[in-house]
Write a structure and sequence with these properties.
The chain has 147 residues and is of the alpha+beta class. Helices cover 16% and strands 35% of the residues. The protein contains 2 helices and 7 strands. It has helices at residues 4-20, 36-41; strands at 47-56, 58-64, 67-72, 78-84, 97-103, 116-124, 137-141. The protein has a 4-stranded antiparallel beta sheet, with no helix packed on it. Strands 3-2-5 form a 3-stranded antiparallel beta sheet, with no helix packed on it. Strand 2 (58-64) and strand 3 (67-72) form a beta hairpin. The longest helix is centred in the N-terminal third of the chain and has 17 residues, at 4-20.
Amino acid sequence: MMNKRVIITIVLTICLFINTVGCNGQTKNNNMGTTLKEQMASYTSKPVYYVEYSSSGCLVDIRINDSSVQKDYNPGAVGGAVITANTAILKSGKQRVTVRLIPCRDETLITEKEPFTMRIGYKDFMKPSGDEGRPCHWVMEMPPIVH
């Protein structure tokens, strides 16, 4: 019977070999020498995406790519917010935005004339900021919902 230390050494050697050789037999290049700062310096833009919304007389659930970015289930809340959306954007290209409006508790309908507005934009943090700060570039504005 093999010594316990020999078995552990063999298992660790196999794990190390599997980790350094890809499935197709090519050696992996981990780029361990590249720092995060060096990788970030290669980007030409650093956008931060924002969702600005206002609601009145309804509960709100905003999702981007099926990931919740805002749940406002406070009945009687009137107002809005500007929230960041980068955590829900996992790749470049088109994104799916879903908005769910729910009548307040003990209500069956949303009765406000303009219950919800929303727009989506970004600020590019690679561009220098002026006296007014970085401008927000609004790329989508939802048409108003009117009764």
